[in-house]
Design brief:
single chain, 9-stranded antiparallel sheet, globular
Length: about 290
């Protein structure tokens, strides 16, 4: 079931405004903290915005960019595509003025979170981004922890990139992080997808989100490049990469309490983790080595 009417599934183009392909504020999502922007720039194109009450990371998805933040200039080398490994990125605090330009054109994402503390502007090179291979067998995926809670200092923002080779399941076993208790923190979450094309057209993938009896929610939807799915609460997973189509998603998370990613598995499916010890990590990982699909 796809819950378009509730706003949990936002297809590509539905959040476009003023030159942006995505402008999703916390208010637009129906919650309090996490947000997302994304845009494609033509050759020589520019976009400017103020971070307002948000802290942000500017992340190249494809192409290189020149940024001016409060009058100071920075360059992002970027990458040819999300399949070509990690990228450098830039962090900016609330009340920053940002102008983004691309000489050759490209696409970028801006992960955002409502913040109270103002950390300094920081440029982070791609070489400093930690890459983790998580799971095994058909649950193998690559996680690029560029702005994870344990790798990068921020007030509330947590953001990572996840990539699953075609046929694999990510975000699995299904897990949740919607309450404060032992082993769990409260975080809103955004999924933003890029799906590899096939020889005859665009690829597709699937996303599942479901709730508890006390807080029901049910989303099972096809996702394609540019789509967004919101996870206000409940179990989420799997994110299913269809055979033949590699899957990328940017995860943006933020919440009211401790800045930490602690999630608990759905106990019905938690046993799957125990099978990983007897399986190898998918040899197609990590992406960007030159021999990945």
């Amino acid at each position: 079931m796809t819950e378009v009417g509730t706003g949990l599934y936002r297809p590509a183009g539905s959040l476009a405004v003023d030159g942006w392909s995505i402008v999703l504020t916390p208010e637009g999502a129906g919650w309090a903290f996490a947000g997302l922007r994304a845009a494609s720039l033509p050759r020589g194109g520019t976009l400017a915005f103020s971070t307002g009450a948000d802290e942000v990371t500017v992340l190249p998805l494809e192409g290189s960019f020149d940024l001016t933040v409060d009058g100071k200039q920075y360059g992002l080398t970027g990458r040819a595509s999300v399949w070509d490994g990690p990228t450098d990125f830039l962090y900016a605090p609330p009340d920053s003025s940002i102008e983004i330009e691309s000489v050759a054109g490209g696409r970028f994402a801006v992960a955002t979170a409502r913040a109270e503390r103002r950390h300094p502007v920081r440029y982070v090179p791609a070489s400093a981004v930690s890459v983790e291979l998580r799971g095994a067998g058909a649950s193998s995926r690559e996680v690029r922890n560029f702005a994870s809670a344990h790798r990068f200092e921020a007030d509330r923002l947590i953001a990572v990139e996840v990539l699953s080779p075609g046929g694999n399941w990510g975000s699995y076993p299904p897990h949740k992080h919607d309450e404060v208790r032992e082993g769990e923190t409260e975080l809103e979450e955004i999924y933003h997808y890029v799906v590899a094309d096939g020889p005859t057209g665009p690829g597709l993938a699937y996303q599942h989100v479901y709730g508890t009896p006390e807080r029901p929610i049910d989303v099972l939807t096809t996702v394609r490049t540019g789509d967004v799915v919101l996870v206000p609460h409940g179990w989420h997973g799997p994110a299913m990469a269809a055979p033949g189509y590699d899957l990328y998603y940017l995860n943006v998370m933020a919440g009211p309490g401790e800045r930490a990613w602690r999630a608990c598995d759905d106990p019905t499916h938690a046993w799957v983790r125990e099978t990983w010890a007897a399986q190898a990590v998918d040899p197609r990982l990590p992406f960007g080595r030159g021999d990945s699909s």
